[in-house]
Design brief:
174 residues; mainly alpha; 7 helices
Length: 174
C-alpha cells in the first residue's frame, strides 16, 4: 500500500510536465510533493517527509511568483533553507538525513533565480541525485522512478534545446 502511494506521486509529477501553464505545473507538483511526503512519513523517512512539507509551502508561493511581489523577495530562499537545515537537525538519523535537506535547499535557491537553466542544472547535479539516493535507501520505489524520469527529462531537454536556448529563460513567463 505504501508503494502505491509513491506511484500516485509519480503520476502527479508526470502530469505536471504535460500541462501548459506554470501555475498548473506547480499545482501538480504540490500534489506530488504532498503524496511523496505522506509516503516517506509512512516509510519512517522523516527528514524527507518534512522537507517535502516545506516544498509544498514553497511551491504554493511560487504559483504566485509573478502576481505577488513579496514572493519574489530573495530572502525567502534563505528562510526556507534555514527551515530545511533545522528539519535536518531535528530529524537526524545519520548522514542520510543530509540528502533531502541538501536537495531541497539547492532546488529552493535555484527556484528563486527564476532561471530555467539554473533550475535544470541544479536539479540535474544536486537535487535529483540526492533524492534518488534517499529514495533508494528508504525504499520509495515511486520516488526512484520519479527522480530517474526527472534526470532523463532534463538531459533530453538540454539535448533538445541546448544550453544557449535556456539562457535567460524565465520559468514564470511561460
Amino acid at each position: 500500500m505504501i508503494q502505491i502511494i509513491g506511484f500516485v506521486g509519480v503520476f502527479f509529477f508526470m502530469m505536471s510536465y504535460q500541462v501548459k501553464s506554470n501555475k498548473m505545473l506547480f499545482f501538480m507538483q504540490i500534489a506530488g510533493c504532498f503524496v511523496f511526503g505522506v509516503q516517506l512519513g509512512l516509510l519512517g523517512a522523516y527528514s524527507g517527509c518534512l522537507s517535502l512539507v516545506v516544498l509544498v509551502v514553497r511551491n504554493i508561493m511560487l504559483t504566485r511568483y509573478e502576481k505577488w511581489e513579496w514572493v519574489r523577495w530573495k530572502g525567502w530562499a534563505i528562510i526556507f533553507s534555514l527551515i530545511l537545515v533545522a528539519i535536518t537537525i531535528m530529524t537526524w538519523d545519520g548522514p542520510v538525513s543530509i540528502l533531502p535537506g541538501l536537495g531541497a535547499i539547492s532546488g529552493t535557491l535555484a527556484c528563486w533565480t527564476n532561471n530555467a537553466k539554473i533550475i535544470r542544472i541544479t536539479n540535474l547535479t544536486i537535487n535529483s541525485p540526492c533524492c534518488l539516493i534517499y529514495d533508494v535507501i528508504f525504499g520509495s520505489w515511486g520516488g526512484v522512478i520519479n527522480e530517474s524520469i526527472t534526470i532523463i527529462s532534463i538531459i533530453v531537454s538540454i539535448m533538445r534545446f541546448g544550453w544557449k536556448a535556456l539562457d535567460g529563460d524565465r520559468v514564470a513567463e511561460v
